[in-house]
Amino acid sequence: MFLSDVGCEVLASMLTAVIGWLSESRIMLFSLKKAVLASSWAAFLVAGKAHGHLGSKPNFIFIITDDQDLHLNSLNYQPAVQRHFAQQGTFFSKHYCTIAICCPSRVSLLTGRAAHNTNVTDVSAPYGGYTKFISEGWNEKYLPVWLQDEGYNTYYTGKLMNGHSTTTYNDPFAKGWTANDFFLDPNTYIYYNVTMQKDQDVPVTYPGEYSTDLAAERSLGFLDDAISKDAPFFIGVAPIGPHAETISGSFNPPVPAKRHKDLFPGLKVPRTENFNPDVSSGASWISQLAQQNQTVVDYNDEFYRARIQSLQAVDDLIESIISRLEKDPLVYENTYLIYTTDNGYHIGQHRLAPGKTCPIEEDYNVPFFIRGPGIGKGKVVSLPTSHTDIVPTLFTLAGIPLQAEFDGEPMPVTAEQLQDTGHRSEHVNLEFWGDSIPEGGYGGSSSKNNTYKSVRVIAQSYDLAYTVWCNNDHEIYDMKSDPGQMNNLHGSAGEVYGWDIEKLTARIDGLLLTLKACKGAVCTRPWAKLHPRGDVLSLSDAMKPAFDDFYVEQQLKVTFTACKEGYLAEFEGALEPVAYD
Ligand SMILES: *[C@@H]1O[C@H](CO)[C@@H](O)[C@H](O)[C@H]1NC(C)=O
Ligand SMILES: *[C@@H]1O[C@H](CO)[C@@H](O)[C@H](O)[C@H]1NC(C)=O
Ligand SMILES: *[C@@H]1O[C@H](CO)[C@@H](O)[C@H](O)[C@H]1NC(C)=O
Ligand SMILES: *[C@@H]1O[C@H](CO)[C@@H](O)[C@H](O)[C@H]1NC(C)=O
């Protein structure tokens, strides 16, 4: 039962009895084994003051780290995440960002739109950054603005997005925040000299103070303010860890808090099958990379260790938020907490320098935890979900009607919602434009044509990854037998899951063609666009031999005519699929 329901019932009983405890409501409360709740309720009665959070919309605390991997096991070194999220909440093991770079991913997350619909596709102008967010009009229509319209107080501390800087922050101010203390460029990624910008004040730089600790302190201040007010709240907390320390375009290992600088001696990047392999892998420029020598591998291991160290302050931040919430059990019980990151990260897989941006599982499959009223504890959900689903999910939890323009759909997060997930789709659309940005001391030049379209198809009995690059290289992997993406099946004869590879590729290409420029419901129900009769709902339905000719011969293909730095539709071949008769 949700706390809000309890609150309403208690309130109703209170009205009946005028004052004091009804034995019935007492039993009801204790039957929930929440004695602590009862004492807060008693305190409420004594104070005789209406508590705004009781029976109202739920609160949200949204913690988003920067560049945190799932596949390099960073979560294994975060006991606070394990204790307060994995054990107390639900983990979505197949949660994806849809564009593997900070600013576009954050804008997509905050608007509920795919990057091809925000057209904020890069970290800086002309194709991205804060100024593009403004010029595309998203400052008027994104999460905090919508939540304020619904009566929420909204708070944010940490990094909002790239290009939000000491010169752009007030031109105009980011809208929708009751209070904020943002990290601003160019010092966003300087752990011990961050520049912050509170409300509409001028920016202040904090030499010698640790940025993640500053974000933790601001979150607690916001929490005090939010709890003292008579309205539901949203607090966004966006520390920089474990992003590289970035000064004037050079990406160095992250700097941990001084108290953590000696932890995890000898820790190394997990030596998975795709780590610095003897045989090159991947496609396009990735397949050209040379194997890393020991000097580079050692450097990358240290880089990895610094990332894990930098995450320890994030763990401290989580502990302090939870401790503060524990002092207000009624608020705590009506608050959803989410832990995620903007995009994933790789170090050494496929011989890659540290970084993100690539169409590989490490860069897209990211941590996502949620806990709160009605959410299962210690549960793992393996349905595919993505960052475009987050706003629809929050809206649903808050009882706000969904917008037709959302490109995602609510994630089934509560035990109740998870009882009926049969209707959910099985794909995630991934996209990228522009350069890959190698990080660290041995990254080399950054001019790599890294524009591509990609799709993941994940069902109980199959799991596939498909990519078309702007040089028209193709990749298709069976992610069940080859999770490291070492064996590109594209163009090979033979079968996977009992399906002919060529015929299978034709279906997935048709799916990708439908998704690459989709809007709204087409993004969540692409097969309905390909098969308007409604008889195909999944890849396995589309594999029927009756559709061989339609997909192999008649369907248009995903192609590029050049590699461009942004979303220039005229270089992206067909934008719409042909529908089956
Ligand atoms: C901190 O950043 C400010 C603003 O960019 C700069 O002027 C100052 O020299 C930096 N301080 C240190 C200790 O690096
Ligand atoms: C290892 O590779 C790096 C990057 O290519 C190069 O700079 C360095 O000289 C190499 N070191 C050795 C010992 O070969
Ligand atoms: C990137 O793509 C462009 C346009 O397709 C091409 O002219 C250029 O040579 C490519 N650059 C590299 C480094 O491959
Ligand atoms: C995206 O933005 C760029 C830069 O402003 C523009 O040139 C391009 O046409 C836009 N793409 C679409 C599909 O609107």
Automatic annotation (TrEMBL):
The modification 3-oxoalanine (Cys) is found at C102. Pfam families: Sulfatase. Its EC number is 3.1.6.1. Residues 58-400 form the Sulfatase N-terminal domain. The keyword Methyltransferase does not apply. It is an enzyme of class 3 (hydrolase). GO terms for biological process: phenol-containing compound metabolic process. The conversion to 3-oxoalanine (also known as C-formylglycine, FGly), of a serine or cysteine residue in prokaryotes and of a cysteine residue in eukaryotes, is critical for catalytic activity. It catalyses: an aryl sulfate + H2O = a phenol + sulfate + H(+). Keywords: Glycoprotein, Hydrolase, Signal. CDD domains: G6S (cd16147). PROSITE patterns: SULFATASE_1. One of its GO terms (molecular function) is arylsulfatase activity. Belongs to the sulfatase family. This is Arylsulfatase. It comes from Anthostomella pinea.
